[in-house]
Amino acid sequence: MDYQATLKELGNSTSQIGSPKLNPAEVYQQEKDFNQFFEQAFNGLESKINKTETNIPDSITGKTENLHDVMIDMTEAQLSLQTAIQIRNKMVEAVNDLKNMQF
């Protein structure tokens, strides 16, 4: 999945400050797209972790002969998990910043 292109597309469809162009139906659709984006990302993360969990025992028992494929899958799963953790941390930080704002 091309996450950068999806984020760029979502960013281009939002209205600019001072010129409201979106009606409530468009805002709802963007929220739905945002939710779908994260749902797909987490499903991809889960599939990578599950693939790694099946590859490791297969490599130990000898069912998989390509150790480098197992290592690549493990590295992909690790990087995906680290990315998801950083995204979570940034979202928590943003929520805390919003809580601390004074109007």
TrEMBL record:
Transmembrane segments: none
Gene Ontology BP term (one): bacterial-type flagellum-dependent cell motility
GO CC term (a single one): bacterial-type flagellum basal body
Pfam families found in the cross-reference section: FliE
Primary location class: other
Subcellular location as annotated: Bacterial flagellum basal body
InterPro entries named in the record: FliE
GO molecular function, one term: cytoskeletal motor activity
Keyword terms of this UniProt record: Bacterial flagellum, Cell projection, Cilium, Flagellum
HAMAP family: FliE
Family of this protein: Belongs to the FliE family.
Protein name stated in the entry: Flagellar hook-basal body complex protein FliE
Gene (UniProt): fliE
